[in-house]
């Protein structure tokens, strides 16, 4: 069955087609949900909420642009919606922000470890880091998505990078000690 036909059947509330769409995209969307969630259980809840939203709003998809991109935006927005109601962001003075660049030697740290330490970041840092670094959103877009100011986005990104850098340095120092 073509994707267009599958979408049309989902628009008609066909539960078999909805199940097929779920099977087709659940792994990709779960990875996105996990990236923004605190843990696997929360990611699973967020994925289910995202699919409920997808099925409720699928008639709004007009076959313009990437369907997968549309699904991804809904998934990210579903996860972010949980954080909008929480006070996870602090207001900062924009002039006091330094953009910190952190170089990570991919050969020195496994991708699994890197993803683990990103997921362990405090919510406000993890969300901004993922949106900016992994998904390529601008600070203006992040500020709009999270209902924060641009300075808060920049500050949280800088702090996330500093925490990651420190965690990786500690990891390397510990590894070095174990190899002695």
Question: What are the salient characteristics of this protein?
Answer:
180 residues; mainly alpha; Rna Polymerase Sigma Factor, Chain: A; Arc Repressor Mutant, subunit A; 2 domains; 8 helices
What does this molecule look like?
GO terms for molecular function: DNA binding; sigma factor activity. It holds the Pfam family Sigma70_r4_2. Belongs to the sigma-70 factor family. ECF subfamily. The protein has 180 residues and is mainly alpha-helical. It folds into 2 domains: 82 residues, Orthogonal Bundle (Rna Polymerase Sigma Factor, Chain: A); 85 residues, Winged helix-like DNA-binding domain superfamily/Winged helix DNA-binding domain (Arc Repressor Mutant, subunit A, Orthogonal Bundle). The chain has 8 helices and no strands. Helix 2 crosses helix 4. The longest helix has 29 residues. The relative contact order is 0.10.
In summary, what is this structure?
With 180 residues, this protein is mostly helical. It has eight helices and no strands.
What is the average per-residue confidence, as pLDDT, rounded to a whole number?
Answer: 86
Major β-sheet profile = none
- What is the domain tally? 2
User: What is the count of helical runs?
Assistant: 8
Q: CATH superfamily of the largest domain, called what?
A: Winged helix-like DNA-binding domain superfamily/Winged helix DNA-binding domain
Radius of gyration: 19 Å
Number of DSSP E strands: 0
Shape: elongated
How far is the first residue's CA from the last residue's CA? Answer: 59 Å
DSSP strand content: under 5%
- CATH topology heading of the largest domain: Arc Repressor Mutant, subunit A
- CATH architecture of the largest domain, by name, is Orthogonal Bundle
CATH domain class of the largest domain: Mainly Alpha
- H/E order of the elements? HHHHHHHH
Low-confidence residue ranges? 92-97
Given the helix and strand composition, which structural class is it? mainly alpha
Helix content: 55-70%
